[in-house]
């Protein structure tokens, strides 16, 4: 049985303030017990938020490649807790730097999931209904994983990306709930820390963690080690990637890159790992991109095979759309209503965040050619996106697919530029 921690809106905030007479400098954080296991630093979103304000930000930002809408808001909410700034820290209208945790802890963003997952799958999603003023909750204990749900029907959820002035801010509430997933309880400190049990207004103010939140995080994971690896720059030329930074080991570095593949496992896949990358003077790594399985989004360096929290760098933006794999910007998001379709039954493919009114080709391959299918075995179908950059296609699964694993991607051309989606994997019984 999982416990849950709830975040509620205003109303009681004044009563709380008058009851706890504390100065702004008072330590108010609390912990719920435990810390995330080393294998639980990943997080994902199943974007089932309804209502266009939750997904009407369609502007890409170079510091956050490949994601917009609710996914981007939640990615930034997690990255705020990371050990160091995400890239140059830019891309949020409500704070100057994203990535303020300063502890031996960094989330690794894994993009989309194909469902809400179980209570230990580290997926953020929406749940229908409402619960008396509660905005969202996190299922604990967290050491072996967690799950976060937003009450989707009760509030007008907003994806920003600037400060949200009406409705409720997905990013601020995500930052709070992800604080629970790290092991933090509610705070009684003054100054409205992110982990306050109540928020007033839209929640935009909770996007930026406060000194009390940081103190709580450090009490669980310790302050950032001075020799924790870090990334200053990532350069991509063709299939060659060079990471500049510091704290790298001589020969046993492992590079984590976001996984491209969405299957029926809810997990969204584990990150792609490039193992045993040697460094030059501990400050530079050069490696070749794997042939498949990764996507643009984020990247991190872990300096050894085993280890402690302090062995993983902060996450850094990674955009190989101009180089490796012949494309693969993965800016559009492809899902299916099932990932294990029976022959003779229908399957619906859906995509969002694609170029408006552009022609699409939904293609399939019997081998994984992610992040971009330069070649493929055939077309599932073609057509034109809606004016909102969405689309869907219904098909009956043909007999010849029986027993096969099929990889599918959607491709578009708009303004002379090729765009594509993540890859989905179908396992046909
Ligand atoms: Zn809470």
Q: How do the strands and helices of this protein lay out in sequence?
A:
Elements: E1 3-9, H1 13-19, E2 42-45, H2 69-79, E3 108-112, E4 123-127, E5 134-140, E6 147-151, E7 157-158, E8 168-169, H3 170-181, E9 198-199, H4 211-221, E10 230-237, E11 240-246, E12 253-259, E13 261-262, E14 272-277, E15 279-280, E16 284-288, E17 294-302, E18 316-318, E19 333-336, E20 346-352, E21 359-365, E22 378-384, E23 391-396, E24 405-414, E25 417-420, E26 423-427
Parallel strand pairs: 1-9, 2-3, 2-4, 4-6, 7-8, 13-26
Antiparallel strand pairs: 1-5, 5-6, 10-11, 11-16, 12-14, 12-17, 15-16, 17-18, 19-20, 20-23, 21-22, 21-24, 24-25, 24-26
Helix pairs in contact: 2-3
**What's the tally of helices?**
4
Q: How do the SSEs run, as a string of H and E? A: EHEHEEEEEEHEHEEEEEEEEEEEEEEEEE
Strand portion: 25-35%
Low-pLDDT windows of residues? 10-25, 323-327
What is Rg?
Answer: 21 Å
Amount of helix = under 10%
Bound molecules: zinc ion
Alpha-beta classification: mainly beta
The CATH homologous superfamily of the largest domain is named Collagenase (Catalytic Domain)
Average pLDDT works out at: 88
Number of domains: 3
Q: Alpha-carbon distance between the termini? A: 33 Å
CATH architecture of the largest domain: 3-Layer(aba) Sandwich
Number of strands: 26
CATH class of the largest domain: Alpha Beta
Task: Estimate the global geometry from the Cα principal axes.
Answer: globular
Query: Can you list the strand order of the major beta sheet?
Result: 3-2-4-6-5-1-9
In CATH terms, what is the fold-level topology of the largest domain?
Collagenase (Catalytic Domain)
The major β-sheet equals:
7 strands, mixed
């Amino acid at each position: 049985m999982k416990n849950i921690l709830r975040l509620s809106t205003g109303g009681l905030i004044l009563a709380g303030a008058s009851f706890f007479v504390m100065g702004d400098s008072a330590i108010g954080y609390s912990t719920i017990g435990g810390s995330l296991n080393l294998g639980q630093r990943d997080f994902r979103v199943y974007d089932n938020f309804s209502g266009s304000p939750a997904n009407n930000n369609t502007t890409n930002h170079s510091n956050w490649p490949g994601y917009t809408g609710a996914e981007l808001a939640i990615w930034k909410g997690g990255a705020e807790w990371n050990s160091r700034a995400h890239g140059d820290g830019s891309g949020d209208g409500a704070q100057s730097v994203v990535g303020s945790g300063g502890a031996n802890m960094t989330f690794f963003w894994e993009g989309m999931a194909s469902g809400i997952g179980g209570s230990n799958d580290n997926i953020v999603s929406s749940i229908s209904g409402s619960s008396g003023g509660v905005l969202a909750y996190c299922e604990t204990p967290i050491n072996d994983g967690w799950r976060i749900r937003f009450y989707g029907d009760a509030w007008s959820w907003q994806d920003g990306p600037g400060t949200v002035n009406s409705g409720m801010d997905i990013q601020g509430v995500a930052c709070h709930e992800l604080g629970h997933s790290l092991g933090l309880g509610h705070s009684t400190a003054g100054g409205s820390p992110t982990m306050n049990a109540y928020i007033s207004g839209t929640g935009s103010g909770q996007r930026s963690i406060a000194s009390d939140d940081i103190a709580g995080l450090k009490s669980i994971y310790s302050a950032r080690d001075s020799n924790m690896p870090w990334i200053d720059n990532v350069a991509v030329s063709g299939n060659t990637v060079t990471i500049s930074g510091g704290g790298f080991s001589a020969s046993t570095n492992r590079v984590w890159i976001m996984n491209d593949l969405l299957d029926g496992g809810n997990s969204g896949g584990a990150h792609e790992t490039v193992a045993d990358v040697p460094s030059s003077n501990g400050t530079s790594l050069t490696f070749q991109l794997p042939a498949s399985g990764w996507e643009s989004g984020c990247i991190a360096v872990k300096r050894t095979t085993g280890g402690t929290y302090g062995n993983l760098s902060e996450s850094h933006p990674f955009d190989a759309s101009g180089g490796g794999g012949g494309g693969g910007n993965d800016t559009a998001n492809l899902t299916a209503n099932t990932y294990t379709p029976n022959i003779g039954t229908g399957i619906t493919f859906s995509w969002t965040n694609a170029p408006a009114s552009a022609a699409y080709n939904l293609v399939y391959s019997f081998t994984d050619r992610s992040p971009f299918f330069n070649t493929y075995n055939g077309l599932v179908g073609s057509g034109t996106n809606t004016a909102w950059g969405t689309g869907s296609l219904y098909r009956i699964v043909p007999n010849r697919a029986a027993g096969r694993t099929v990889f599918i991607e959607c491709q578009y051309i708009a303004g002379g530029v090729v765009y594509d989606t993540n890859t989905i994997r179908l396992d046909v019984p």
